[in-house]
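Hey,
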Amino acid sequence: MRITEATRKGLKFTEYGADGKPLFGGQIDLDERGNAGNGSLNGNQGKQRFRLVRKAYQ
């Protein structure tokens, strides 16, 4: 299960295993249009980077 919460700068999340113990979590900072900037995710297992494939604005 993953729980995602809004923060002032973006989103934070925690992923839990079937036993209810936290497995992974982190924070994604978003810009004013909702993009994750350079794609970096600051998690409790270190920094990760994701590549943005496509943008769509509605």
